[in-house]
Design brief:
Length: 76
């Protein structure tokens, strides 16, 4: 499945994890408790930074930007 960064908000919710990873609600909440998983607790809400999540999951959502930066032609 291909992901486009623009398809998701900057912070994901547990419900978004359920859809992306096809997990049950309980499994998605358990995942947010794992050490090393990028999540932020704000009051009772659990938010997941989009870019950190996709990096954790091993999906490069900005392949072109990294190629440009490697070539030294990125924005300074």
């Amino acid at each position: 499945m291909k992901f486009n960064a623009g398809d998701f908000p900057l912070t994901l919710r547990v419900e978004d994890l359920q859809k992306i990873l096809r997990l049950s609600r309980a499994s998605a909440y358990e995942l947010t408790k794992q050490k090393g998983f990028p999540s932020i607790r704000v009051g009772r809400r659990i938010l997941i930074p989009r870019d950190a999540f996709f990096k954790w999951y091993g999906i490069d959502i900005y392949p072109l930007a990294e190629k440009v930066n490697e070539m030294g032609e990125g924005i300074e």
